[in-house]
Amino acid sequence: MVKKVSKAKAEAALQHRAINDFSGCIPDGLGVKVWGPLNVEWLNLCFTGALSDCVYYSVHNNAIFVRANANWAAAFKYSSRQQAKMPASLVYKFAPRGFPRTPYELEQLYKHYANKHASHHDRVVMYLLMIELLLFAQKLDKSLLDRTMWALLHDPIYRDLQSPIQGEEDMDFVIPQHILTCFMRIKEDGTTALHVMHALDPSQPFDLEQIAQYVLIFGRPGLENTWQGITFDFAYRMHWRTLFGFTLCRALCATSAAKPAVVRRLVLVMARPRMYREAVASYNAAFPDQPMVAQYRSHLNIMQVHMPDEMAQNFSDDDTLHVLLYNRIPLDWVDHAYTYGVVYLEQQFHNPTMSLDIFREIDDEHHQRLLRYGTPPAIPQWDGWREIFKDDHYHLMFKRDKERALPESPEAKGLYYYIGMDPNQVHLWKCMAAHGLLPPVPTATNIAPMESLVVAAMTASGP
Predict the structure, then answer these.
(1) Residue 197: which residues within 8 A CB-CB, separation 6 or more?
(2) Taking 90 as the threshold, does the pLDDT of residue 283 lie above it?
């Protein structure tokens, strides 16, 4: 009888392991590594940007190192130009890549972590790995959760993991990851600082990459100088459509106290599908001998708006459409910048910088146009998310180290999207207002080639 019971338990354990020893469908949004001759798919653990400053990811091993191990692995890689070997500990026996990739690996980590007689150092590492994966899973859209993350978030056994960290020896181990010396420079006074990040070059307003690098450090959501309208997710990725919309507005508006009001009007036109297309159609119907022919060249002639500060609040939708027409901005460019307009609206409702009355009215029209026309199409080669690079990662680590003294982190105050969210979709504030018909669309028949507007010519390279 005892043998039969033991056999039944063994069979149940094997069946349980068979169910839990695979990751299930790996979400496309997180990437896949192909391992070995059997082409077994494993989750790529390179969550660069979304992992904390305490983590180092080894590309060669597709493995995660935490805290002191992270410093050791990173220093070894950059000093020897070789990848660090996997630590010989029970941690990487139960979870060979650091992060558990299956519910079974997670179970094994937890059991050893909960065993008070196990190696204290191993228990600390296991705790840190589970906490790091939990923090990452909380940054994901639900569609991207794999079975391991789902278990970690929803199985009561993993709720309220108790920290085994105690004493000075543990504190030496749980130090944050160091910024490597290859990313630092020595100042004249002997102190160290990160390599200088140059200011934006105003002669290159469509250099999206330099803008992305700059805004990541100095203008991301939650900072005092947040650059409104640029999408960030919790992996610090920026959406190219919002970067493009920002650069288009920046190219069209001269620097002055009136610039924010002019940019705001441009953005609100971008947020309303087909508004510019309707204005172009009306203009072409009114002036068939002088139709609007969009600029499609490697270099563009952009006439910037100059306006006295006291007139800025009177800048209207018609004036905005006038500027776009006069500069012969391509229709698909304004369609492409739609995401910038939508995110700008979301950020205003999330953290208002002025009265919301104007934004509520625009938002109602935006929703109704969206129902009528659908989401404006993107330009494929300028679509998608900008992933951060290794230099970006260390610049961000350096900046966040200084931000720790702030009473509240930028991520807690700013509007960040869950990884996997579509920024073109409305997520945060309200449903469409159920009142009235679509407001009348300006006819734009009064828009002719401008001569009276004070402008300054500039040449900008294309994106």
Answers:
(1) 213, 214, 217, 395
(2) yes
